[in-house]
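Reviewer 2 asked us to include a model.

Predict the structure of this chain.
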Amino acid sequence: MLGPQSSLVMYDEEYQRILLLLEKLLRESNSKVIFLVDKNGQLIAATGETANLDTTSLASLTAGNIAATGGLAKLIGEKEFSILFHEGEKDNLHISIIGGRVILVVIFDQRSSLGLVRLRVKKASSNLAIVFEDLVKKTEEEASNNTASPFAEITDDDIDSLFN
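Predicted model (structure tokens):
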């Protein structure tokens, strides 16, 4: 099995499954925005009121937040903190790690509650974990079927002649 830091190829079928699960979570938790980030800070998917958000920065800062709290966890003898919650004046962030691989971020306001968000995130997390398990299997199968890269035969001379 691929480790948590291994890169996955995102196939359209799995991406659509992820997007449907995020949209369902958005509705059922009455949240404003939901996004999914890999542990390197790359945005995987987002849904909700994203128009006025810098999702790229949010994604990288969230990954940094997870890394920092992971350091805190280790200092006190924990493996990691799998759920983080930040409460603001207007908006709140619920951050959770799914399958040790990706980070789910839910932004919600007074239209929802922490209890409702936690309940809905728990169910969505197990469904998302299944999608990522399928993705790992598919990635491994593709890798074993395509051992040779289609670019393996291209030489530096070929590239030079193409641009000359």
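The helical segments are 12-29, 55-75, 114-145, 156-163. The first helix runs from residue 12 to 29. We have added this to the supplementary material.
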